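Propose amino acids for all 323 sites.
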């Protein structure tokens, strides 16, 4: 069974071109499934059947797994079963009839336009959060949060980096992994466009506005040189110790500035939601927003139309005398 797991992981990475995170998640789910199958008396992979699969998902649910997690695990089981059938490891595609629990539709939390503007201005107002650059290999320190001054260019550089990070996330709607993965060469300053490598290795170009360009100019001229180290390479966003900015650290930075500015709790993905919602509220075409966000399916983008409707209903209830 171990060999089958390794071959399946190789198939996901090389043939299906899935991200490393997706491969890890699917392999973790598969190991859990096969462990459950062994506990149910399956001596080898050929004894895997629909009863075992359903029993595995039922056990996951009793252990408190969320509907979204159960849906992903069912998808992992179906993907593995189809692959194993094609490669001759299973006589049939035993997971094909396996149903996924329907996840509850949860509308994403978004900031109002004025709240987003306040968050963008937070680094300029020295609303610096307490964070650590977990992506760097050295022991954690809190110089990300230090205010400018004291004869040291590093704290000021960190604030310039934070401003650019916020402007990129909100101004382009890119994912946090995409923002942290940007190299300097990925930015076309003449056209104000960034080249982003998204999920599944799909590349897209996303425009950014004048505020992000100003933040970029300041970062490249004054901020990045102060933090750059031999191991920086061509990474656009750097940690306080010179390595490429880690997504985990970037999430802390966003949450910290929101808290320091007195705003609702927000994540980088919340800024992505906010960007999409504000684009649609401003009259952007749904297909254009789909392209900007890098969604493979329009259905993924349509959730933002529900957000706009909810805001419209809230405004109606507040303002209309017949509400």
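Proposal:
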């Amino acid at each position: 069974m171990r060999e089958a797991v390794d071959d399946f992981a190789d198939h996901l990475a090389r043939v299906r071109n899935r991200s490393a995170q997706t491969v890890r998640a699917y392999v973790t789910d598969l190991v859990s499934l096969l462990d459950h199958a062994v506990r149910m008396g399956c001596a080898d992979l050929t004894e895997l059947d629909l009863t075992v699969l359903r029993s595995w998902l039922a056990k996951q649910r009793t252990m408190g797994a969320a509907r979204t997690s159960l849906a992903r695990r069912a998808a992992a089981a179906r993907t593995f079963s189809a692959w194993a059938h094609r490669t001759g490891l299973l006589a049939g595609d035993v997971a094909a009839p396996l149903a996924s629990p329907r996840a509850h539709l949860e509308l994403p939390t978004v900031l109002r336009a004025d709240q987003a503007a306040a968050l963008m201005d937070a680094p300029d107002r020295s609303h610096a959060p307490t964070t650590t650059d977990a992506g760097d290999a050295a022991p954690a320190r809190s110089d990300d949060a230090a205010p400018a001054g004291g004869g040291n260019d590093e704290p000021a550089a960190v604030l310039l980096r934070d401003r650019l990070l916020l402007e990129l996330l909100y101004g382009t709607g890119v994912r946090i992994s995409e923002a942290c993965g940007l190299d300097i060469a990925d930015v076309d300053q003449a056209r104000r466009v960034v080249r982003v490598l998204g999920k599944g290795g799909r590349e897209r170009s996303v425009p950014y506005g004048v505020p992000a360009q100003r933040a970029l100019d300041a970062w490249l001229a004054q901020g990045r040189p102060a933090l750059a180290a031999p191991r920086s390479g061509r990474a656009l966003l750097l940690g306080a110790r010179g390595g490429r900015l880690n997504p985990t650290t970037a999430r802390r930075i966003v949450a910290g500035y929101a808290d320091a500015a007195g705003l609702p709790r927000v994540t980088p993905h919340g800024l992505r939601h906010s960007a999409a919602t504000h684009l649609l509220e401003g009259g952007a075409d749904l297909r254009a927003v789909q392209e900007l966000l890098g969604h493979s399916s329009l259905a993924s983008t349509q959730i933002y139309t529900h957000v706009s409707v909810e805001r419209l209903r809230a405004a109606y209830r507040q303002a209309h005398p017949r509400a």
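The chain has a mean pLDDT of 83. The CA atoms of residues 86 and 93 lie 8 Å apart.
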